[in-house]
Amino acid sequence: MSSYSVSFYPENIIVMIDENDSLLYAINLAGIPVKASCSGRGTCGSCGIIIKQGQVKLAVGAVPDQRYQGKEFLPACRCFPLSNLVVELPTESKLTGQQVLLDNSFGEETETLNIYSKNTLCDMFPFDSPVYRKITIVIPEPSLNDPIDDLSRLNRSIHKATGMEKLRPTMGLLRILPDLLRRGGWKITISLAGIPGSEFTEVDFVEPGCENDRYFGLAVDIGTTTVVAQLVDLESGTVTSAKGAFNKQASFGDDVITRIIYASEHGVIVLQEAILDTINELIEEMLEEISIKPSDIKAAVCAGNTTMTHVLLGLDPSNIRLEPYTPVANKFPAMRAARAGLNIYNQAWVHIAPGTASYMGGDITAGLLVTGMVFADDLSLFIDIGTNGEMVLGNKEWLVSCACSAGPAFEGWGIKHGMRACPGAIERVVISQDGQKVKYDTVGNSPPMGICGSGLIDALSWLYKSGIIDRTGSMIKDPNKQRVRETVSGREFVLAWAGETGNKADIYLSDAEIKNLIRSKAAVYAGIRTMLHMVGLPVEAISRVYIAGGFGRQINIRAAINIGMLPDIPLEKYTYIGNSAVKGARLALLSGQARELFYNIADKITYLELSNGNLFMDEFISALFIPHTELSLFPTVEPEAGL
Amino acid sequence: MSSYSVSFYPENIIVMIDENDSLLYAINLAGIPVKASCSGRGTCGSCGIIIKQGQVKLAVGAVPDQRYQGKEFLPACRCFPLSNLVVELPTESKLTGQQVLLDNSFGEETETLNIYSKNTLCDMFPFDSPVYRKITIVIPEPSLNDPIDDLSRLNRSIHKATGMEKLRPTMGLLRILPDLLRRGGWKITISLAGIPGSEFTEVDFVEPGCENDRYFGLAVDIGTTTVVAQLVDLESGTVTSAKGAFNKQASFGDDVITRIIYASEHGVIVLQEAILDTINELIEEMLEEISIKPSDIKAAVCAGNTTMTHVLLGLDPSNIRLEPYTPVANKFPAMRAARAGLNIYNQAWVHIAPGTASYMGGDITAGLLVTGMVFADDLSLFIDIGTNGEMVLGNKEWLVSCACSAGPAFEGWGIKHGMRACPGAIERVVISQDGQKVKYDTVGNSPPMGICGSGLIDALSWLYKSGIIDRTGSMIKDPNKQRVRETVSGREFVLAWAGETGNKADIYLSDAEIKNLIRSKAAVYAGIRTMLHMVGLPVEAISRVYIAGGFGRQINIRAAINIGMLPDIPLEKYTYIGNSAVKGARLALLSGQARELFYNIADKITYLELSNGNLFMDEFISALFIPHTELSLFPTVEPEAGL
């Protein structure tokens, strides 16, 4: 068998591969983050490369992609070397780089979260008890009248100072305790660490005298597509740094299903390493930004969906995708950072948000904390549409939930010109009544590069209003509508012409993509209706809707109602809460009461498996129209009226 | 500096030492267990050696010991090489060897303990819940109507089978759980391990199908002088092997005080290694005896006094001997065998008996379980006289305790011809009224080699009865009493003449040794009286006395009353319970209810520090007579009457 060198330009990384190895394998070997939505099965066309030098052979059936003028993109996963190569991985195929800069909301998080003061994290939770804290106390010296052992004396003083009762020392602490107490003249600084999922607090460390170093907690939202991390000063409660990045697992598939298949076939370890790399790089960036050491991060709270959590912990996710969809666990044993593989204080406890079911994970648990709906008398609806779509309906008495396979369409995946809300993403769209003119706004006012979730919802709403698509989403043939064109694979609507765009290619939506979007919106609405049906309440009973998650920028709620995705209730009942998972993780870092909920709320959620029974399927089919089969459900939506 | 070789004969071990290194150092280097009561300070004379070849110099003031005919014993700790040497460490100076064979009670333990059947461990505790157990269960398969996660499904089935609720998995288990459940066709064998000091049970291991290997628990009594270990079949509750050995720490001093001083000066590690070596050798012997692997021992319960426990765990014991006598801790964090250094299943939990105070340790906690006095309405007294002396008085409502510095006199230490109850030890003594004839029994009916605790108590009683000593313990000069002889260091009473003895040397008790014994018996009685005084009760209020510990063989209770050591109450109120610490450790291995007490009883004991206040000192001085200053306390003791 022949071996060839593959040099990546302009990264200047050279790897050796065999003739039977694909160039996607070479890219992974070189460690360059690459899009590979289909996990290397040759179906998504997202891993396009440009051969600068040398010769390759394509697998049978694979064809070059000509979508970008003057460049021939070959699918790396179908491409095998015939000689030594120089290869360019273009920006379009990279997971990082200009096109996939951090979501703006990462920055926004930092600002909005700093408003939480030391005493009120949000309306619900007091900043009473950070998960790790240091206190300096003076301990009465032992005497013949009070000769209790050093550990009991320490615990007694901690109890007096904090009210804490269930304290546990480490063996390491006991080995140095007598010396520390006496050397510090019975004035010491004690580090207290909450043990995950337990009522106990660990007496982690004791230092003689008064010690004032800052210490931090790490909050992480592990999304299927993106990972967001925050460093929280546990003394002040403020977010001192926040960063986001694409989940490096993206090289192994876009959604949880492709990741699970990868894990089932190749083992979970590679995926586990990818997510740990992602998180550890974020940690490193934040450490650098605020000039602290890994050992200054004394606790971590991670929230992710059930699959992401399994992968993070190295647990086999295979059964998550196989009926009856059983995860290994929804609650996880206590684990320290060194064991978890996080590059922080190696004795730090890592808190993992418990989940409810295979498709109702810890990210929702954390997100629910932020809504406060578990304290409310009236009915709230929580919707988190990210790469997956999860919803929770309820109040302080009960909670029901469901997961709809909304798919990642609203994150731009599976749509040729779909993209996340990065610079150049079309985020707002208005189409003139005659369907001839399109006005759009892009993120950062850059020339358009694609369209993100909020733009897609707007576009769908306006395509319908302007009569370009009918109630089923089919494009109507009309020679006057120049933006509608026929192709071999169906009709397309051009949102932006090549001349206007950043990559000199038309940005369009195809008939098939629109049908895909309608299925996604129908799944969300049908899920909501199914939950309401289970508890016997009408849509109007909902007092508050919390929209969380990965639409990128705030969606146009009105447009989402117009297409029949969200219930037709007054707009003022809607609240956009952004990345609720990382916010909830931060609440758990800072508030004892929040932590209590964090560990116990998931148990109290009744999960509806939508594939079980016909109710959801009936609702789904009814929702495959714009806005819905039953128009009475959308009284304020008038197809002919302007916005 | 010159170096010399030291060859030990007949062990054939050669070590190199410098001219400034003592021969005791050479013995320790060679790893030969040696008596060194004073920890190498040159005061006890127990490390005598015979120089077979070569020359040595003695430290100033050190003198050869001529006690054994024809042999010159040099104190190894005061002896330095002037040339290469051949050295014999005689039997008398060794910790192992003929003279220090296992205490007979080790064997006895095995027999008496096997009587506990599967259902009743003793009168008090049911054999309901061994600390580690395996159960085989069939788990209902998941379905869409019952899709809970694998871990919850497992826990639910364990709960149904055992009633257990607070279950905790290991992360390692979660990693293999989905595969095991499915591979085993949902019939699995589960290993459940109680987590020390916690209400939780760890789900330690799951095996597909039905699995029938035997598994064992280890019960250990870590005495200052001896260590006793038992292997308990956790399926049947029977003791399958029991072994005992001298604590290898004896090379560093006889009692806890000399050990603590050694630890304070040289660090605790050497002592920790010595005790771990001792225990691990016992484990090895037992494993060999019943042909099982270290990994078959799935749990351990260790009970020792506070100093021994500190040393076992590598905790600094220094403050135990310094006023106000504060241990590092009385309760200890949960620890696995690998961390503890025990050569058993490395994930086995090691349960450490919690103590009450510096001189009221976990051995007493374990011992109390055996008495059942914590369930009794009437008043019981528990006395454990080993190398230290601890006593507990109380009933189901309250418990008070104290430690008297009885010293190791009753174990034979500090008495020139004192020895433990090994073959050749005089264990029973009768002296004729005229003081001329001595009748004695020895352990194993061997020629006498020395005298053990029960023999010393008998001897003291008869020396008084026969008028050889007066009420203060002073030997009365009487030319008719041939066994009383004058020496430069005082009078001596010869118990056995050289012609009768196994080592061809007179066995005698000196005036000073008798005074030492009287101080020891006075400390015991004064401790009892002090406790009674604290609770305002007379001696007659005691309904039951439990005698535990290291007297070796059962003491003659009548003789102990006669000398004023034990309260003068009817003999039928006394029960000898042997090594209660190891028995209690075994109860904790087998019974959930016993384990509950094991972890909580120590907190409920009020400890009286006898050195605090004058009460004990007054009682002690009153007890320095035979039987006591206040004769009315000993109505049945008539000095002139026969036994």
Summarize the structure.
Chain A contains 15 helices and 29 strands.
Strand content of chain A: 15-25%
As a percent range, the share of helical residues of chain A equals 25-40%
The CATH topology of the domain at 364-408 and 518-633 in chain A: Nucleotidyltransferase, domain 5
- Report the average pLDDT across residues of chain A: 88
The biggest sheet of chain A, with number of strands, parallel, antiparallel or mixed sense and barrel status, is: 6 strands, mixed
Oligomeric state of this protein? homodimer
The number of helices of chain A is: 15
Strand order of the largest sheet of chain A: 14-13-12-15-17-16
CATH superfamily descriptor of the domain at 364-408 and 518-633 in chain A: ATPase, nucleotide binding domain
Low-confidence spans of chain A: 97-120
Q: Structural class from helices and strands of chain A?
A: alpha/beta
Largest interface: A-B, 45 and 45 residues
CATH architecture of the domain at 364-408 and 518-633 in chain A: 2-Layer Sandwich
Please tally the β strands of chain A and state the result: 29
- Alpha-carbon Rg of chain A, integer: 27 Å
Shape of chain A: globular
Distance between the amino and carboxyl termini of chain A: 64 Å
CATH class of the domain at 364-408 and 518-633 in chain A: Alpha Beta
Write up what this structure looks like.
Two copies of one chain form a homodimer. With 643 residues, chain A is an alpha/beta fold. Among the domains of chain A are: 3-94, Ubiquitin-like (UB roll) (Roll), CATH 3.10.20; 132-208, Ubiquitin-like (UB roll); 364-408 and 518-633, 2-Layer Sandwich (Nucleotidyltransferase, domain 5); 413-515, no CATH class. The first copy, chain A, is built from 15 helices and 29 strands. In chain A, the strands form seven sheets. Chain A has a six-stranded mixed sheet with strand order 14-13-12-15-17-16, sandwiched between helices. In chain A, a hairpin with a 2-residue loop joins strand 24 and strand 25 (490-496). Chain A is globular and about 100 Å long. The interface between A and B is large, with 45 and 45 residues.
